[in-house]
Design a protein that fits this description.
The complex is a heterodimer of chains A (about 240) and B (about 40). Chain A is mainly α and about 240 residues long. Chain A is about 75% helix and about 0% strand. Chain A is built from seven helices and no strands. In chain A, α3 (about 85-115) runs parallel beside α5 (about 150-165). The longest helix of chain A is centred in the C-terminal third of the chain and has 47 residues, at about 200-245. Chain A is globular, with a radius of gyration of 21 Å. Chain B is built from one helix and no strands. The mean pLDDT of chain B is about 90. Classes of the chains: A mainly alpha (about 240), B mainly alpha (about 40). The interface of A and B includes residues 113, 228 and 232 of A.
């Protein structure tokens, strides 16, 4: 079985896997909400507002994953020149931007409660904002006028360069020793993590898996729409040729 | 509590909103494609 259907000549059908993932994501989201609100204890220092953490971190993870997919498929497009790779990269970038906006709005809401300010130009927030602007620019390149091959090449190069910022965002609070942003993982003597209670860790892992499934649902849907667009483009080109000839 | 409600409202507004946008896009392109196919048959 082929993992990626690269046939762009026929009208696509929504797959069974797509439906299964949609039906799986709904109960998983409900369980994730139950885990975040009821199953996990209320954090002592921050109180109930800490419960933003589960979906905030999960959204950040999905944004990183989405941009990693852009990076991988941009390289694949540049080496193989298959349009489907360009389509996947473009769809993934858009989802990444949606999740980055979630991160950049829920973060300051938490910050208002924890730091008593909506925004601080500290390393994590600043690098995440730059990341958002870079991928908005990537989407703008994709929406320019012109042949898809040319736009695809330019967007792919930009998608590869933009990904450099992802590890910088992740490492920023470690490299620049942020006083505000908490380091949850990789701290302490054995570098395993900074004191997440087991039930909180379980809720976080479950939420990350759930949001990843939601990302896959969005990705499949986005690719399906792009395939339909390509078919419509082909028919339009056919009519233009008929009119010209 | 209001911060928590605000944060979760934004999360679900963004996710449901994006799903809605995708649905609208799909509907529009499916309609266009159907029209083009009918035109092609003629």
């Amino acid at each position: 079985m082929k993992l990626i259907n690269d046939d762009l000549t026929s009208i696509p059908k929504e797959t069974t896997l797509h439906k299964v993932l949609i039906y799986l994501s709904i109960p998983m989201v409900l369980v994730a909400l139950y885990l975040a609100f009821i199953y996990t204890p209320i954090e002592v220092k921050m109180g109930i507002v800490q419960k933003i953490f589960y979906f905030h971190v999960a959204s950040a993870w999905v944004a990183f994953l989405a941009f990693f997919i852009v990076f991988v498929f941009s390289i694949m497009f540049l080496s193989k020149r298959k349009r489907i790779y360009d389509v996947i990269a473009g769809v993934s970038a858009e989802i990444g931007v949606v999740y980055t906006i979630i991160v950049l709005t829920t973060g300051p809401i938490w910050g208002r409660s924890a730091w008593n300010t909506w925004w601080s130009w500290e390393p994590r927030l600043t690098t995440t904002l730059i990341l958002l602007f870079m991928y908005i620019a990537y989407i703008m390149i994709r929406n320019m006028d012109g042949a898809w091959e040319k736009k695809g090449r330019l967007a792919s190069v930009f998608g590869i360069i933009s990904f450099i910022n992802v590890p910088i965002v992740f490492m920023s609070i470690r490299w620049w020793n942020s006083k505000l942003h908490p380091v949850v993982f990789g701290e302490g003597a054995n570098e395993t993590g900074g004191g997440l209670e087991p039930s909180m860790l379980f809720a976080l892992i479950f939420t990350v898996i759930t949001m990843t499934i939601v990302y896959v649902v969005f990705l499949q849907k986005g690719i399906y729409i792009e395939r339909l667009k390509i078919q419509a483009e082909r028919l339009k080109e056919k009519f233009q040729e008929k009119l010209a000839g | 509590m209001e911060y928590l409600v605000a944060a979760y409202s934004i999360i679900w507004l963004m996710i449901v909103g994006y799903l809605f946008v995708l649905g609208k896009r799909q509907k529009a392109i499916a309609k266009q494609l159907q029209f083009l196919q009918e035109l092609d048959k003629k």
